């Protein structure tokens, strides 16, 4: 118990399903992650989803996952957001947040 460590760094992979490509979701995800101090990457998949990896402060990552799970960019119709490979980190593996192609 006690005071939660706000500096706790987490890592996770995510995949967003629904009508999500072609609506600036990758760009908006990158912009929001950069502003929140989250590192990693995002890209469109061949299966029509958006996939990526996030690393950063747990509180900020949780906010972004909530946004990706329920809201997303204007025009998105999000069915679900699946999370994989969740864990804690002692340091970040990426220096920024990028869009991959």
TrEMBL record:
Provide the Acylphosphatase-like domain boundaries.
Answer: 11-101
**GO molecular function terms noted in the UniProt entry:** acylphosphatase activity
Which PROSITE patterns does UniProt cross-reference here? ACYLPHOSPHATASE_3
Keyword vocabulary terms for this entry: Hydrolase
Q: What class of enzyme is it?
A: hydrolase
Stated EC number for the protein is: 3.6.1.7
Pfam families, alphabetized: Acylphosphatase
Catalytic activity reads: an acyl phosphate + H2O = a carboxylate + phosphate + H(+)
Q: Which domain of life is it from?
A: Eukaryota
Assigned protein family: Belongs to the acylphosphatase family.
Q: Protein name, please?
A: acylphosphatase
Organism of this sequence:
Drosophila rhopaloa (Fruit fly)
């Amino acid at each position: 118990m006690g005071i939660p460590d706000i500096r706790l760094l987490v890592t996770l992979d995510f995949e967003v399903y629904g009508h999500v490509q072609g609506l600036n979701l990758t760009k908006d995800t990158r912009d929001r992650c950069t502003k929140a101090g989250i590192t990693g990457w995002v890209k469109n998949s061949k299966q029509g989803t958006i996939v990526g990896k996030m690393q950063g402060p747990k509180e900020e990552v949780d906010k972004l996952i909530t946004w990706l799970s329920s809201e997303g960019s204007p025009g998105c119709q999000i069915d679900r957001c699946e999370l994989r490979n969740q864990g804690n980190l002692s340091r970040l593996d990426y220096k920024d947040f990028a869009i991959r192609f």
